[in-house]
Write a structure and sequence with these properties.
This is ArsR/SmtB family transcription factor. InterPro entries: ArsR-like_HTH, HTH_ArsR_DNA-bd_dom, WH-like_DNA-bd_sf, WH_DNA-bd_sf. There is one protein chain. Helix content is 47%, strand content 12%. With 116 residues, the protein is of the alpha+beta class. The protein has a single domain, classed as Winged helix-like DNA-binding domain superfamily/Winged helix DNA-binding domain (Arc Repressor Mutant, subunit A, Orthogonal Bundle). The chain has a 3-stranded antiparallel beta sheet with strand order 1-3-2. A hairpin with a 2-residue loop joins strand 2 and strand 3. The protein is globular.
Length: 116
C-alpha cells in the first residue's frame, strides 16, 4: 500500500494490491454503495460534504475510509476539502464488468424498492 507522506496525503492501495474480496466487502454496505453510485454518475470528483448520508459524521468518515483502503475510491485534498473519485479505470482493468454489473444491480434494486 502506498503510504501517506504527510497528514494531507492519504494512503491508497496500488492497482496490484486491490483484491476482489476487499472490493466486494467495500461495496456490500448500503451507504458505501450509495456513495459509489453517486460517484459513478459524477463528472468530476465530489467532496465528502457533498454526500448527505443518514449517519453520523464519524460513520461517514469510516465509510469513505473503507472505500479508499479497499481501492474503490481515490481521495485527495483540494484546499481544505477532501475530494473523492471512483477508481473506475483500476477496477475495470482488474475486474472487467464488475463495477457496471454492481451499479446496474443497485439501480434495479433501488427502482424495485422505490428508493430512486
Amino acid at each position: 500500500m502506498t503510504t501517506a507522506t504527510s497528514p494531507r496525503v492519504l494512503a491508497h492501495p496500488t492497482r496490484e494490491e486491490i483484491r476482489l474480496e476487499n472490493v466486494l466487502h467495500a461495496l456490500s454496505d448500503p451507504m458505501r454503495l450509495r456513495v459509489v453510485r453517486e460517484l459513478a454518475t459524477a463528472e468530476d470528483d465530489l467532496s465528502c460534504s457533498y454526500f448527505d448520508l443518514p449517519v453520523t459524521k464519524s460513520t461517514t468518515t469510516h465509510h469513505f475510509r473503507v472505500l479508499r483502503e479497499n481501492g474503490v475510491i481515490r481521495q485527495i485534498y483540494r484546499g481544505t476539502a477532501k475530494m473523492n473519485g471512483l477508481r473506475r479505470d483500476d477496477l475495470d482493468a482488474l475486474f472487467p464488468g464488475l463495477l457496471d454489473s454492481v451499479l446496474a444491480a443497485a439501480a434495479g434494486q433501488a427502482d424495485r424498492l422505490g428508493e430512486g
